Amino acid sequence: MWSENQIDDESFLNALEFLIENQIIKVEHIVTGEERIEVNAPGIFYVWSYKNDFHLEFGEPTSRDLHFELIEENEQLYKDIGVEDVNAIVILPVFTSSAYSENGFYEYFFDRCDDCTTVKIVENNYLEFYQGSQIGARVLQILGYKTITDIDLDKNPKILEKFDTVILLHNEYVTQSMFNSIVNHPHVIYLYPNALYAEIEVDYEKNEITLIRGHGFPTEDEDNGFDWEFDNTRPYEFDQKCEKWEFYEIPNGKMLNCYPEKILISNTQLLKELKNLVD
User: Fold this and answer.
1) What is the pLDDT of residues 45-64, one digit of tens each?
2) What's this model's pTM, rounded to 2 decimal places?
3) How far is CA 235 from the centre of its chain?
4) CA-to-CA distance for 190 and 169, rounded, in angstroms?
5) Handedness of CA 48, 51, 54, 59 (dihedral sign)
6) Cα dist from 26 to 3, 16, 33, 152, 179, whole Å
7) Cβ distance 239 to 259 under 8 Å?
8) 253 dihedral zone (left: phi>0; alpha: psi -120 to 50; beta)
9) What is the rounded (10 degree) CA torsion for 217, 255, 15, 39?
């Protein structure tokens, strides 16, 4: 299909990535001079990264990119927490990852750059480790959840009508059309707090996003850019341990009361509950 120009380059690459990550096709990855390091993950997946991917984030060594593999001995567990043929879609937060990238919005928020309210969209739809829900995205993908990017949603807001359930990650920065599409869907699982927090506009010709409103912009008293009454940023965004996690109900779905990025890699009960909500 790609060779006959029936699908674009991005769709072709996304399909290849999906097939490789789910071990439908296997590719021997040879990297000269890079050491492969196992990341501590209690038993659910084999998780690893390359040594050169590590950097210091908040004083701790953190990898920019993680690789997940299924463990043969966990076949029954994957049946318990994985999904097949469910009519659900996960929205990957490419715009939010872009906002947190180098020379992004936070250079403006920290008074280090006056014009950093416009930033390039990250190449290859790359999700940053923590802010862009990289772990959450990889975990759900390897467990069988279907995904699209927020770029796909912004270009076609009606796409959500095809799905019974929509799962949000840390989709903090969204356009008005995205916001409308999500809040009007009847069954949304807000897996991360701080979603739908600030309004942006997108210029696809320049491949840029621009901050419009929210997160203290354009005035310091601006909070949620959509004045959304169900915004759950405070206090849940900063609870990363999720020791008392639970989903609670709002009119169009369920919200999780903590930021689960670090526990999705290991918390089987949370993954089982997510599956129950989707099923």
Assistant:
1) 988 888 877 776 666 777 77
2) 0.83
3) 20
4) 7
5) positive
6) 21, 10, 22, 27, 38
7) yes
8) left
9) 90
Q: What does R_g of the chain's alpha carbons equal in angstroms?
A: 19
CB 74 within 8 A of CB 46: no
At position 142, the amino acid (one-letter code) is: I
Dist. CA 232–CA 222, nearest whole Å: 15
Q: Which residues contact 246 (CB under 8 A, 6 or more apart)?
A: 256, 257
Are 198 and 215 in contact, with CB atoms under 8 Å apart?
yes
For the record, the structure tokens of 142 come out as 């390897």
Q: Which residue has the higher pLDDT, 2 or 119?
A: 119
pLDDT single digits (tens) 68-100: 889 989 999 999 999 998 999 999 999 999 999
Tell me whether strands 208-213 and 118-120 are parallel, antiparallel or unpaired.
antiparallel
192 vs 172: CA distance, rounded Å: 9
CB-CB contact of 134 with 66 (8 Å): yes
Please say whether the beta carbons of 195 and 253 come within 8 A.
Answer: no
**Which of the 8 DSSP states describes residue 135?**
H
Prior bond of 235 cis (ω within 30°): yes
Residue 165 contacts residue 274 (beta carbons within 8 Å): no
Six token digits for residue 249? 């109900």
Residue type (1 letter), 96: T
Around Cβ 180, how many Cβ atoms within 10 Å? 13
Tell me the C-alpha to C-alpha distance, in Å, between residue 76 and each of 70, 272, 277. 12, 13, 20
Indicate whether 252 pLDDT > 80.
yes
CA atoms within 13 A on the CB side of 229: 3
Q: What pLDDT, on the 0 to 100 scale, is given for residue 64?
A: 74
Query: Edge-to-edge strand order for the sheet containing 45-50?
Result: 36-38, 45-50, 67-70
- How confident is residue 42, by pLDDT bands cut at 50, 70 and 90? low
Q: Tell me the sheet residues that pair with 45.
A: 70
